[in-house]
Design brief:
This protein has 223 residues and is mainly α. Helix content is 61%, strand content 0%.
């Protein structure tokens, strides 16, 4: 039996599980001083490379030992990985939690985590919300798609993060949540040449399933 295929089918599970539990923990305590401090700290480091910082790691890696052992297991480390010393799981966690902190900024009434809402799905909802204000879904979709396409053209995850950060900031403004447990797995797979294109194609396909202008009913418009 090809054990590598068996590992590849299961290795994202601990990462998704850990990300879900950690973000749910924050989402259920948004008004607490500890959560506010954690998210404020993570926001400070979203623009920095994970191998260059120390301060956020105690916040990121404070979960159950079993999950962390599997996440830290350096399976499928891409040969082109420039972030030496960190596993793909650690890198995915770092960016996932920093982006969630950006998404959650100034919002204590509702978590910006929602299961089963992919990056592409969240962005097509963003296009719809912006079209309600500006009157043209095609124009708004084109603007967002250009940003998504520009991000997809980057060779490495590190280069994609500024684009993704900008899109997450727009989602924050529009109060549109996203599945950050799924994002953690996507960021893991974006580090491998074998799975990178699969993730990007899925994001683009999800985005292109946006509603037509006719489906945006006046009753849905925000007051």
């Amino acid at each position: 039996m090809d054990t590598s295929k068996k590992e590849q089918s299961t290795w994202p599970s601990p990462l998704k599980h850990y990300s879900y539990k950690k973000i749910q923990q924050w989402g259920n305590s948004l008004t607490s001083a500890e959560t506010k401090a954690d998210l404020a700290l993570l926001r400070k480091f979203v623009g920095k490379s994970p191998e260059q910082v120390i301060e956020p790691w105690p916040v990121i890696l404070d979960g159950e030992e079993k999950d962390l052992q599997e996440i830290l297991n350096p399976l499928y480390v891409p040969k082109q990985n420039k972030l030496s010393g960190l596993t793909p799981g650690e890198i995915a966690l770092y960016y996932t939690f920093c982006l969630y902190a950006i998404h959650q900024r100034s919002r204590t009434d509702k978590s910006m985590f929602e299961a089963n809402v992919s990056v592409g799905q969240a962005l097509h909802q963003l296009a719809i919300e912006r079209a309600r204000k500006n009157g043209s879904l095609s124009d708004e979709s084109e603007k967002i798609f250009k940003r998504l396409k520009a991000m997809a053209g980057k060779k490495e995850l590190k280069a994609m993060i500024p684009d993704l950060r900008g899109l997450v900031a727009l989602l924050n403004e529009a109060k549109i949540p996203m599945d950050y447990a799924a994002l953690a797995v996507d960021l893991l797979r974006l580090q491998s040449p074998k799975t990178k294109n699969q993730v990007l194609i899925r994001w683009i396909n999800d985005f292109n399933r946006a509603k037509s202008v006719d489906e945006i009913q006046p009753s849905e418009e925000k007051k």
